[in-house]
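Much of our argument rests on the idea that a fold can be written as discrete symbols. Part of our work consisted of pairing the sequence of a single chain with a tokenised description of its backbone. No coordinates are needed to read the tokens, only the vocabulary itself. The record that follows shows the chain in one-letter code together with its fold in token form.
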Amino acid sequence: MIRFLRYAWAVYFFLWFLAIFIVFLPTFWLLLLHERTYKYAHNLRGIWGRLIMFFSGLRPRTTYEAPLNKNDQYIFVANHFSYLDILSLNVQLRYYFRFLAKSELANIPVFSIFFKTIDISVNRKSLRESVTAFNAASEALSNGDSLGIFPEGGIANNVPKMVRFKSGAFRMAIENQVKIVPVTIVDNWKRLPEGGFKSGGTPGKMRMVVHEPIETSDLTDKDLPDLIEKTHSIIQNTFDKLNFEAANEDNR
């Protein structure tokens, strides 16, 4: 019975996901015609996401360790255990950014409209296409945009431990002197594990912690491994603390 309810909720979630997208599609199409209106399209994605969360019984809550300066550029890097993570960043991180994500997402009809315009897809299986994607991301940074990246390179299937971060986001941060903002997505792995159809999903809380930005202006390529390790540790330690340490204390 529990498994049936989990699958039923996942289907219910995806139906709302598609229904609201279809309603907004003409507006998305218009806003994505010109780069100068990309920010409005991104804001509309946030509205789309908030409606999905409301009708699906998802309760977002975001904690900022430090305020973000709207005039600064950032590269947001987050853990990735669920497809809900994309929704979370769009809704809970109220800051304009462009996604740099795996090319498989660009092949999904719902997402293709974004990866042909505002977002950047990367095919890590092709060196040539990877270089093209990261050049496009660097150009976006040069134009004053911020980026959102899952540096694990895809959804990790070994919860609770993240896989090793790929270096691209951190290398771009150093080269462009853009601050790294670690983001811990706490609960999505329980709400909708992986894609959702293996074990279904559940409504409930969706906590996110936006950590204090890490300065990169004084860093060089020699500092790259330390920057990656520092960011990885911040996210992993917060994820473990908010998911498991509290549960262990309750069991004492």
